[in-house]
């Protein structure tokens, strides 16, 4: 006999429901990643579904171990926090990179970034780079 058999039937049913709903959302995100057409649609489905699916699975895990051990198990909030923060951030970064790529292709930019030349090595009278990153506004003299 394991300690999980001592869970009340209603609690076990609720935990099972949370796990099934969470894993179904994760599966839905995977299907959305495969089935949707454009890149911008594809980045939304996994991000939203994985975030909510992870939340439900972590909630079920916290409930199960809190009931099984007869004490609150809260350290899973840290795991859940990282799992809920990283997909939206990656969505934002991937979306911005794709948007910039699409804009550059549409405008005909060739994505050549000039090398950074330190001010001490620049020829006299050449425009100075005001951003100090090799691209951006410069003064013309």
Report on this structure.
- With 141 residues, the chain is mostly helical.
- The protein has one domain.
- It has a two-stranded antiparallel ribbon.
- Strand 1 and strand 2 form a beta hairpin.
- Helix 1 packs antiparallel against helix 2 and helix 2 packs antiparallel against helix 3.
- The model has no long low-confidence stretch (mean pLDDT 80).
Strand order of the largest sheet: 1-2
Shape assignment: elongated
Portion of residues in beta strands equals under 5%
Taking the sheet with the most strands, its summary is: 2 strands, antiparallel
Structural class: mainly alpha
Radius of gyration: 26 Å
Mean pLDDT: 80
> How many alpha or pi helices?
3
From N to C, what is the helix and strand string?
HHHEE
In whole angstroms, how far apart are the ends? 83 Å
How many beta-strand elements? 2
The residue fraction in helices comes out at 55-70%
- Assembly classification: single chain
Number of domain modules = 1
- Extract low-pLDDT stretches: none
Summarize the structure.
By secondary structure, the protein is mainly alpha-helical. The protein is built from 3 helices and 2 strands, in the order αααββ.
List the defining traits of the structure above:
single chain, 141 residues, mainly alpha, two-stranded antiparallel sheet, 3 helices, 2 strands, 64% helix, 3% strand
């Amino acid at each position: 006999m394991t300690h999980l058999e001592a869970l009340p039937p209603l609690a076990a049913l609720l935990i099972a429901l949370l796990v099934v709903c969470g894993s179904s959302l994760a599966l839905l995100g995977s299907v959305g990643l495969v089935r949707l057409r454009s890149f911008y649609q594809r980045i939304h489905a996994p991000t939203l579904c994985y975030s909510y699916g992870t939340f439900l699975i972590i909630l079920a895990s916290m409930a199960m171990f809190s009931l099984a051990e007869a004490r609150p198990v809260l350290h899973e909030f840290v795991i859940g926090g990282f799992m809920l923060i990283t997909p939206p951030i990656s969505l934002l970064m991937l979306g911005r990179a794709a948007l910039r790529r699409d804009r550059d292709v549409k405008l005909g930019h060739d994505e050549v970034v000039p090398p950074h030349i330190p001010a001490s090595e620049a020829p006299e009278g050449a425009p100075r780079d005001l951003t100090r990153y090799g691209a951006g506004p410069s003064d013309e003299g």
